[in-house]
Amino acid sequence: MTILCYHSVQPGWASPLAVDPADFAEHCSWLVRRRQVLPLDEAVDRVDHRGRLPRGFAALTFDDGFAALYEHALPVLQGYRLPATVFLVAATLTATGHPVDWVDTPGEAPLRTLTRDQVLHMQEAGVSFQSHSYAHHDLTRLSFADCVADLRQSRELLSEVLGRPVGLLAYPRGRHNAQVRAAAARAGYRHAFGLPERAEPAGPYSIPRVGVYHGNSTTTVRVKSSRGYFAGRTASAFPVAQRIARQALRR
Ligand SMILES: [Zn+2]
Q1: How far, in Å, is the centroid of ligand 1 from the Cα of 66?
Q2: Residue 114 alpha carbon to ligand 1 centre in Å
Q3: How far is the CA of 251 from the centre of ligand 1 (A)?
Q4: Distance 63 CA to ligand 1 centre (A)
Q5: What single string gives the DSSP state of each residue in 171-218?
Q6: Ligand 1 centre and the CA of 173: distance in Å?
């Protein structure tokens, strides 16, 4: 289990979704020394039937396309020459835009998403962009037809903006079921990614990722980026974080 999922990298937003820029730089410094970080489209070809990459490999993803990535993540990724993929909410790139209305812990300042210019600049700098649906609905609550329409609209709009095909999807909040997975295939995606809190069956439309959240240390990232993270005793991210915290307190 080695595909990591960040959301924003930014100071001053007290949310689990916001990793502090200094912490992010430390994570990247560790990853570049201790893991081979693959572009996501190469990584998907190498995951096994349990959704795991070979030992020592990792991939970096970011959900939601927050504007802060431009200032706080891009320079670090470039500095370490790390490949990364950002999953965009397509409606945020339309002429009318789309507010960030899907975050449970929005904080005080309004949250902004990447502009088209920022996306294209990041793409030129080597960052890959894929789909995080059209409007960040909970796809498990849509009808099959509405789900296909949402996902197809996202893929088509993003392909047009990016000038290249879009074939990967990260489900909003990682939520999916058999109908959503079938809709992703029908809408033309090759692979799709979840964000499970515990081990779940993996497949081409349910590739697991591990979330990295506010306050996660490099030690936590090391545990989360280990191949067996979801195997054996570990049922979810939270017991691991608690165990690490307890061990740290004992020392
Ligand atoms: Zn999201």
Answers
A1: 10
A2: 14
A3: 36
A4: 5
A5: -GGG---HHHHHHHHHTT-SEEE---SS-----TT-B--EE--TT--H
A6: 5
* Residues, CB within 5 angstroms of ligand 1 (ion): 63-64, 172
| 190 vs 210: CA distance, rounded Å | 20
Tens of pLDDT, residue by residue over 22-76, are 999 999 999 999 999 999 999 999 998 888 888 999 999 999 999 999 999 999 9
97: left (phi over 0), alpha (psi -120 to 50) or beta: left
The CATH number of the domain covering residues in 3-250: 3.20.20.370
- Indicate the pTM of the whole model: 0.90
The pair of structure tokens assigned to 3 is: 């595909």
Encode pLDDT of 132-161 as tens digits.
999 999 999 999 999 999 999 999 999 999
The encoded tokens of residue 123 equal 């793409």
Please name the amino acid found at residue 163: G
C-alpha of residue 181 to centroid of ligand 1, in Å: 17
Sign of the torsion angle spanned by Cα atoms 184, 91, 137, 153: negative
95 Cα: distance to centroid of ligand 1 (angstroms): 21
CA dihedral 118, 124, 126, 128 (to 10 degrees): 60
